[in-house]
Amino acid sequence: MFGNWTFGTLVFTVMVITVTAKMALETHFWTWINHLVTWGSILFYFVFSLFYGGILWPFLSSQNMYFVFIQLLSSGSAWFAIILMVVTCLFLDIVKKVFDHQFHPTNIEKAQMYSNTVAFSDEFIALQPLSRARSQLSKLR
């Protein structure tokens, strides 16, 4: 049903979404600029591909990409393949991230977990002198 151009577009779409999602998984601090660039890049890819494939360009000798992206996105099996491949590619990364967070937390994550248990009592680490806070953090290791 689909030709080589459609298959290539499917593979490139999966690659763009997978790489962007992997970058999002590895981002530690989110700002509005991170959100704008990360999710905006996926949106820009879809808008540009729809625009590029939906116009007959008079200066191009061949029109191989005409209507390919629209044809791809109109297929339910293509959407299923995109979602399945992205999830498959990122599955081990997500499992590793969850495993590391649960069983090998960083010092910052330990301090965050400890501060959540201590809450707003007299023992709250952030309100203590630095030497005492360091000694309490060393007990967590």
UniProtKB/TrEMBL annotation:
Topology versus the membrane: Multi-pass membrane protein
Chain segments annotated as coiled-coil in the UniProt record: none
Pfam assignment, any one: PhoLip_ATPase_C
Domain P-type ATPase C-terminal span(s) in chain numbering: 3-106
Main subcellular localisation: membrane
Localization annotation: Membrane
Record flagged with keyword Transmembrane: yes
Domain of life: Eukaryota
GO molecular function: ATPase-coupled intramembrane lipid transporter activity; metal ion binding
Keywords: Magnesium, Membrane, Metal-binding, Transmembrane, Transmembrane helix
Sequence intervals crossing the membrane: 6-25, 37-60, 66-92
GO CC terms: endoplasmic reticulum; plasma membrane; recycling endosome
Annotated GO biological process: phospholipid translocation
Family matches, as PANTHER family: PHOSPHOLIPID-TRANSPORTING ATPASE IF, PROBABLE PHOSPHOLIPID-TRANSPORTING ATPASE
Name of the protein described by the UniProt record: P-type ATPase C-terminal domain-containing protein
Organism: Cervus elaphus hippelaphus
